[in-house]
Amino acid sequence: MIEVLQNKPFLVAIFAGTIAQAIKVLSFLLVEKKVNYRRFVQADGSPNMHAAALSALGMAVGFKDGFGALPFALVLSMTILICVDTMNVKNAASRQAEVMQIIVERIRKRKMDRANHRNHGMSYSPINVLSGVAVGVVFALIIF
Q1: Helix 126-143 and helix 8-32: axis angle, to 10°?
Q2: Residue 56 or 5, more confident
Q3: Angle between helical axes of 49-65 and 70-110 (0-180°, round to 10)
């Protein structure tokens, strides 16, 4: 356990993900003028925590083992796959949520209830993921 806590690439990844989540809390505070600590554990929004953590891990591994080394190639491949899947899965889930909301609204209209409770918070855009990558890379550059 002690070795894991001394593993600099691992710590850089954890802290970059944490910073990405903290940015979400702060941006909500600036926009909405109130603190929402739930934003710290919510997966949606910008910057993307997954992209930040994996980008920081990739940079840290590259600095430690070299950017031509096998560990860097593995982390880079994993980062690309996770970032692409994050955008695709979240966008697909968002589209499904929109369709479900339409169905619910049609049912409610029949019951004379016209309340609109849409939730579009699950969708990631490329800018969400890219901003997460930027947070991870910058954090790794600062640490290394």
Answers
A1: 130
A2: 56
A3: 180
Task: Single out the residue of 53, 25, 23, 18 nearest to residue 39, CA to CA.
Answer: 25
Cis before 47 (ω within 30) = yes
Contact present, 12 and 139 (Cβ < 8 Å): yes
Model pLDDT for residues 4-31, shown as the tens digit of each residue:
889 999 999 999 999 999 999 898 888 8
Give CA–CA dist 97/46, Å, rounded: 20
